[in-house]
Amino acid sequence: MAEKKKEKDETVLGLKLNSRLLELLAKLQEVELEDFELEAGELEIWFQPGAVAAPVVAPPKAVSPPVKAKPTQILEAEFVPPVETYPGRVVEVKLGRRGGKSVVIGGETAPAFYTFEKPTPHPPVISLDVFDMEVPLAKAVKMHVKDVLGDPAAWAKLAVDKFGADLVTIHLISVDPLVKDASPREAVKTVEAVTQAVDVPLIIGGCGDPVKDADVFQEVCETFAGERFLISSVTRDMDVERCAKFIKKGGQVALAFTPMDLNLARELNRRLYDFLPKEDIVMDLTTAALGYGLDYAFTNMERARLAALMGDPELAHPMSSGTTNAWAAREAWMKMAPEWEPRELRGPLWEVVTALTLLLAGVDLFMMMHPAAVKTVKDVIAQLMGGKSGNAERLVEWVAAKV
Amino acid sequence: MSGKEGKVGVKELSPIDVYKLLPRTNCKECGEENCMAFATKVVNREVPIEKCKPLLKKEFEKAYKQLKDMLEPAVKEVVIGAGDKAVKIGGKLVMYRHELTYFNPTAIAIDVTDEMPEDEILGRVKQVEDFRYEYIGQILKLDMIAVRSTSNDPDKFKATVRKIAENTKLPMVLCSLNPTVLEAGLMAAPKARPLLYAATENNWRDVAELALMYDCPLTVFAPGNIKMLKSLAKTLVEYGVQDLVLDPGTFPGDGLAETLNNFTMIRRAACKRGDDLLGFPLMGVPMTVWLESAGLAPEIVKWREAYLASMLIVRFADILIMHSLDGWALLPNVILRANIYTDPRKPVAVEPGLKVFGTPDENSPVMFTTNFALTYYTVASDIESAKINAYLLVVDSEGLAVDPAVAGRKITAEKVAEALKASGIENKVKHRKLIIPGKAARLSGEIEELSGWQVIVGPKDSSEIPKFLQEKWQTIQSQ
Question: In this complex, is the C-beta atom of A53 within 8 Å of any C-beta atom belonging to chain B?
Fold first, then answer.
């Protein structure tokens, strides 16, 4: 009984903390989206030898006699921004609906947010996860979606209207033969309900069974021809030819998933090229959670993007990340000793750090879960796209600032 | 101009380049079979060149010096502090971790000020000292104390630095743009070799004198102005200050793009263009978010400080100064740091095979997991802490966790069945019941078919293993 009461208090605290966080995050200033180019002129400086402060230090007490004369004024050095040009370019992929919203991802000609070289052509976008049935969720996530669990259309609407999702991923896990073994027709009904509820581009997620997923995807692709859904995902152990053909026929986009191995990613892409144009393929190179293999995911994606820019056409696709995997880390959801609490903040921050790490590796599309994490990642993307300069005069104050 | 002859990018350095300068006697004194094997290890930074004893003799002086220059990292290694708590920062050989590996994890300093009440200062110092988190066999810690003068009063600063030096051996960063204040701080800890913060275009001469007098590393601060930063570095090197740290400014909020651009340009200039004057460790100051904290709840500012720190850890920062001491905000960052600084050349995996916990008998449970180190250690610690007697079969997943291993077919029913057979477990227990990870549930039917063992799907998280076994094992076993 006492146990229960405690749990309830925490929930209240968590909700309070978190809704406040969301609210305050929402108040953060909007930034304009504009391309950013570094003007060489901005780096010019003016030297005013007279402006150097007079010495306030007593003469050195014990210092060896200088070998050569010490400079008495600043010695000017040249700095030329180390800009490189890259032979490769990431293809642009358009996702989105007939008569609804669409997004374009990819198109990069420089590494992620090297805006001193090239502006980022399209801001990375965020898709929120929606499940077609009740699933176990971390407490910090569940409290935001508890009213819409089991109602994918309402969940999708909440994700778009309240949490600012650019896209929605509808995970059709009930089709899993080991779960409910729902039929492809039932899956189509779920997707239909979601298409009615929101007008953003959709990602269609399967259950992980290579045979059943192909059946479900085929039904969805054909029923919703021309909607440019992202089909998540096509894997090496599926009938790749069959999948590629119905994706092509239905005018959808393939998400090519491989397990952290660039050779396998290239191989899968090559198999898809026989049936699909490059503009119809996005890659998922596997996302591991912070603390649980994020280093592999980061380096794998960073290498893929650098290879693409250096001219490897088989990796020159936009990258998608299943950032929700961050919640697989027990530090994201588990109750820990008091010094690491509250988990209502630790959890979403886990998702944020996982996302931002991969943002810097070049991810174009994030599949995410927690509303505060989504809000933060969107804000960071806006700041990076905005490319405004910092206020140097104000910044100097940090040294003596009272906080 | 900048850039040094002879220093080549680590990618371009081949074992032959090193081999040519070695004595080439294959004396094996270094422990390697021959000089070529030694050269390969040197290029991979697995052994220091000094392990070749003959090379240190007078006759090889020139070759030794040449090798030293050749092997010099693109980013200078700078030591902060003295004694066994001293921290090395920088020493980076490459821009991207996949090109080799990153050395010297980003040091994290937590700030105190000379106007905080004494118990608050000591409380914060103690929190920094006590911070620890166990992660895959490592202890993750915080590294330094940054002492800021908010009073601009030399006496106050001196007293604060003295108080801290008396209470901790952790290295310090002394922060004030007023050289008189900095000097007062140095007088309180003359042998501590703190990092000085900072030399600017206005105070560089006086601060340079202090750095020389007290033999301290020195931070150069020129926010948003790399040309000035580099000019100051040039001037200070010429002045005789060799150990510099560069702070191009950490602009919070709208200045984020500029911040990342500056860090990236500086690191590329050092690693790819051989620019020695920018080849110094980079300082990031996530605590600048507190400048824009008016009217915000502290959780918001801590949250922003935490994610800004994470981006700087990824984008080349060698040292960070932070204000928040909250575990929820720091934990993701110390773990991110451990991840980014893991050697990508070594898979984080344990040996596959049968592991024994406690003193299992012929009726004890048999479970399996993957050989990803983190998965294994997590499962192992859950079993150990509950003092369970059991067998744990570690199946080779090529270093992947259960989820991606099942999705990516790195763990298959065949592999599990083979591992069961090879482990000899069939001679150790009389039952044929295998508990599999909840996240490998979809393999259960196939494993039963291929191995002849009955499969029981266990919990999705190993923290629930003790409860699972306690509630279910008796029943499972008697079935």
Answer: yes
- Nearest Cα of chain B lies from the Cα of A148 at a distance, in angstroms, of 24
- Nearest chain A residue to B221 by CA: give it: A396
Determine the angle formed by the axes of helices B327-340 and A294-309, rounding to 10 degrees.
60
Query: What distances in angstroms separate CA A104 from CA A93, A120, A167, A247, A318, one per listed residue?
Result: 6, 12, 12, 18, 10
- Which amino acid, A258? T
Q: Backbone phi, then psi, for B215, in 5-degree steps?
A: 50, 55
DSSP string, A190-232: HHHHHHHH--S-EEEE--S-HHHHHHHHHHHHHHTTTS--EEE
Task: Indicate the CATH number of B353-478 among 3.40.50.11600, 3.90.226.10, 3.30.70.890, 3.40.50.970.
Answer: 3.40.50.11600
**Beta-bridge mates of residue A394:** none
Burial class (CB in 10 A: 0-12, 13-18, 19+), A99: exposed
Domain B77-340: state its class.
alpha beta
Q: Using a CB–CB cutoff of 8 Å, tell me whether A76 touches chain B.
A: yes
- Within 8 A by CB and 6+ apart from A12, the residues are none
Beta-bridged to residue A95, according to DSSP, are A103
* pTM given for the model: 0.85
Task: Tell me what ipTM this predicted complex has.
Answer: 0.85
Task: Kindly identify which residue of chain A lies nearest to residue B197, measuring between CA atoms.
Answer: A399
- Architecture of the A93-286+293-319 domain: Alpha-Beta Barrel (3.20)
Give the single-character DSSP code of A54. Answer: P
Q: Which fold has domain B15-71?
A: 3-methyladenine DNA Glycosylase II; Chain A, domain 3 (1.10.15)
Report the residue from A257, A293, A349 with minimal CB separation from B303: A349
The pLDDT assigned to A63 comes to 52
In the predicted model, what is the mean pLDDT of residues B24-34?
Answer: 92
Contacts with A288 from chain B: Cβ below 8 Å: 401, 404
Phi, psi of A141 (to 5 degrees): -85, -45
Q: What percent of chain A has pLDDT over 70?
A: 83
Q: Closest Cα of chain B to A389: distance in Å?
A: 5
